[in-house]
Amino acid sequence: MPNPPDVQSFFDPSTNTVSHVASDPNTGECAIIDAVLDFDPRAGRTATRSAATIIDYVLHRGLKLRWILETHVHADHLSAAQHLQQVLGGVVGIGEHVTDVQRIFADVFNITADFAADGSQFDRLFHDDETFSIGKIPARVLHTPGHTPACVTYLIGDAAFVGDSLFMPDYGTARTDFPGGDARTLFQSIQRILALPSSTRMFVGHDYGAPGRKRFAWETTVEEQCRANVHVRLGTDEEAFVLMRTHRDAALEMPALILPSVQVNIRAGRLPPPETNGVHYLKIPVDVL
Length: 289
Hints:
Elements: E1 6-12, E2 17-23, E3 29-33, E4 36-40, E5 45-47, H1 49-60, E6 64-69, E7 78-79, H2 81-88, E8 91-95, H3 98-108, E9 124-126, E10 131-134, E11 137-143, E12 152-156, E13 159-163, H4 183-194, E14 201-204, E15 219-221, H5 222-228, H6 238-250, H7 258-265
Parallel strand pairs: 3-6, 6-8, 8-9, 13-14
Antiparallel strand pairs: 1-2, 2-3, 4-5, 4-7, 10-11, 11-12, 12-13, 14-15
């Protein structure tokens, strides 16, 4: 088993998002995964309180930020990638299939004339099975689409950061009804994740709680997921999963922040360019999603 990173997680109660800092205890290099930029939709106001907590942790531990990683284009929170980079440096990375998501939403928001759907907004586009490192800890990128076309899992040492593909075993799996999502593709991606060594630590990107559980949680293992995931434990039939996921998704409302989040996150955490009055605007397409 590869060297284990130290992992510190940060829960954002307003979006139920979990951000993670994975660091090499020997060199002090670290990666921040799926950081949150606070956003008040009623006032259209951003803030950096959540990011500041992570920044304080990095600085107080004397860590050196090497990577700012996104597991996918999030639909439930704005990314703090740009703020983190301005304060701490680092390289902003995401899976190369972000271009598929960019093309989809460039049409949704009618920004095709002035938006390059080529991934150039990010510093690094990872391809499937690409390797990199955090200090002396090896890392690998697994393309795990289904929730979105661009979802990736970052395998850093013995820790897998799965984004939204899997939740805690008692909560299940990600929705697949966003543009470009697909339940069958998600099932196949999850099989790839569950084929990792059973002792692999797994860190999820959200927790919404589950009946009978009193605390939020975000760390599990491949073994626990294989044994107990309520949607996709080992032995789950693919057709049954697709049917379950499709019916479940049909009853879900869109995330409250999907429209502002996606516009910012396809730009690697940047707001749309300011207009002639110097103000940034977010579009609200009507009767599209």
